[in-house]
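Invent a record, attention on tokens:
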Amino acid sequence: MDFTTVLAVICGAVAFSGALCVVFQIYYMTVIDASARKLKHPKFWGFLTMSGNNSGGLIMYLIGRRKYPIINISESEKKELERRKKAVGVGLLFLVTGIIGMVCAILL
């Protein structure tokens, strides 16, 4: 194997791990939000937001949740949401870095 192939595989792994991190964090943020709004089956809503190539589940959740105001959310849940938002940013950084690296490796 040559250097460009190895670089492309490494960058692909970085991009894949970033994408997994983003999906995982969005799932848990949705579960916390749905629980705070007292929606039935918050884990189902979390799973729904993860699925789909065009984020149809996330859009459906965001539209549907407008009818349900936040009833109770603890301070620890607020901190958890903020921590997960930062983790999404890190995951997106990994995703973008991996994709840029893959494109550069292919163009070499």
Notes: The chain has four helices and no strands.
